Amino acid sequence: MESSSEVDLISEDERQFGQWPRRLLYVDDENMISHEWQPGNTYGGYKEPKYNIVSYTWGRFALKQGEKPHVQGIKVGNISWDVPRIDPNRHFSVAEFDCMIRSTLTVREKTGDHGEPIRFLWLDIACIDQEVDVVKMSEIGRQAVIFQNASSACIWLNRCEEEELRTIVAEFKAADCMRPDMERSPKHYEKMITWTKSLLPPALGQLQRLRDEPWFNSLWTLQEAYLRQHAVILCRSGLPVSKGFPYSSSFENLRSITFNVSNIANTCSRAIALGCNDTSLLTTLDLINELGIVPIERHNPFTLLNSASHRKAFDNVDRVYGIMQVFGYRLGATRPEMTKLEAPPKFTLQDLQSELSEKLLNDFPVQSQLKIFTSPPPKGEAWKLNPYSEIPQFARIPSIYTFVNRGPGSSGMHGRNSPKSLSKWEVIPVAGTSEKSVKCTGKVCSFRMLQMTWARLNDERTKADPESHPIQEIALDLNRVSGPSSPLVIPLLPDFPIVGREVEVSRQNNLALLLAEHALWVLLLGTQKSPTRTFGRTQYGLIIMRAKRADTDYWKRIGVLRWELWDLPENTNEADKKLLKGDSEAWEGRSGVLA
Hints:
Protein name: Heterokaryon incompatibility domain-containing protein
Low-confidence stretches: 1-10, 406-412
Domain Heterokaryon incompatibility: 51-224
Oligomer: single chain
Shape: globular
Organism: Coleophoma cylindrospora
Mean pLDDT: 88
Distance between the termini: 42 Å
Largest sheet: 6 strands, mixed
Number of strands: 20
InterPro entries: HET, HetReg/Transcr_Mod
Strand order of the largest sheet: 2-1-6-5-7-8
C-alpha cells in the first residue's frame, strides 16, 4: 500500500505537469537514463526537450519472476523498479529492443523536418513506475496528452520484416482501385466480380497476416493508433521503411495501411450492394472490423469500444482504460481524486462501461445515441455503448466527431457544425439496485406521419431527378435469430434484405413504408447545420415503441434515422417544412424511460 505522502505527492505533481510526462528517457550512444520531471519542465537539465514516442506491445510476453532467469531486461538508469523482461523466443530480444529504441530518435513524421537532434523518448516501461499502482494509474490517465505532444511517433511491428511490410502496403494499394459509389449496371457488376476474384484475395491474405501481428491485436495500441495515425512504422529490425519514391525521404506510416484498407472496405460494401455474393466480401469486412482500422482512419471514437472487444487484453477493464483518452476522459481508478486514496476501489468492466456511457451521454447526447446494436442490449441499457454497438453509415460523417483528439496539439470538444441536442437526458437510479437508467424528455412524432411526408417529397424529387436519393435514411437495431453464426436480421422485419449491417439507399423508401405499419414513434434527437460541404441542415431521430407500465412511459428503441431539411422540392408546402423541422403540432412534448 502506498503511503499518504506518496499519494499527496502525486496529487501535487499532477497540477504541475500540465502536458508534460512524469518521466522521459534520455538516450545517448552508451546509456539510457530515465529522468523525472522537474519544475520548469526540465529533465536531466534539459528544459522542455522535444521527445518522440513509440507504440508497441509487450505485456502478454513478459516473463514471470523466476522464469528464464538468464534473460535480462534493457538497462535503464535512475529508476526504482525492475524493467519487465520479455521472452525473446515469443516476442523480441534485448538487442532488437535496444536497436528499435535508438532508431526512434532518428525518425521524423514530417518529411524535411531536420531540426535539432532528439535525445528523449517516452517509453512506457522506462517512464511509468511498474510497481506503484497509484502512480501507474495516474500516468495511464494522461496518455492522450503525452502522445499528442510528442514530436514524432513510431509503431513497432516487431514480427514484420521490411520486405513483408512493402508487400502488405503494395497489395493494399493495388486493391484500392475501385470507385465505391459505382452506379448499378451490368458493366459495373462485372467489374466488381473481376476485382473480387483478382485483387481482393491478396489483400485479404495481408489482412489475415496483420491479424497475427501482436501490435494489431493488442488493446492499448488501438488508442495509440487513434491518437497518432501518421506514426512511422518500424519493421522487425527497428528501422523505418522508405516509401521508395525517388528523391523522397518519407517513410511508410500507419496511414499507408488505414487509408487503403478503409477504401477496400467501402468497395466490398458496394460490391455486395451491386449483387456480388462472394463470401470473401463479408469475410474481408468482418476482418477489417475486427482489426479496428476504419475507426482509426475516420476519426470515429464511438466504434472503439466495439473494436476493443476484438483485441487481446491482460485485464478486461483495459477495454475501457485503453480507449477512454480519445474522449479526454479519466475514468475509474485513473480519476484524479482516486490518486488521493491509499486503497482505491476496484472497478469492473461493467462499472467502467457505465461510467463511460454516462459521460458520453452528458457531453454528446446526439452522437452517443446515433448507434445500432447487433445484439440486444441488457434491459434498461440501450442508452449505453457496448461491444455490440456500431455506428450506421450516415452517422460516420467526420463533422459529427470534431471533438476527438487528432494528434499533436489539442482540439475542442465541440466544433461549429457539431450536432445540437434537441432532447434532454437524465440518468436516474433503478430502485433497489446499483444500476442506472435514463429518462428522456423531448418531442415525439408518429413515424407514420413522417413517412407519408417523406414519400410525397421523395416522389417530387424523383420526378425532377430519377437518380436522387431519399430524404430519409434509417438504420435499425439487428439480431441473430438462431445462434451466433446465423445472419443478422431486423427483428420487426426479419425478411427484409440488409447488406452487412445496413439497408441499401435504394430500399429506404420501402423500409419506411413497412415500418409505418407498426405503432412507432420518432424522438427528435438533434439537428446539425452542415454535416458536410454539400449537405445542409439535417435532423436526427430515435425510432421507439412506446409502452406504459403503472404511471411510467417506457420507450424501446428500434433504431435511428436522419432526414434532410435542405434541397427540398421547390413546391414543398409550409406544413411539411414545419413537420420536418419539428415545429408542427404533430410533435408532442413527452418523457419516457428508455427500456
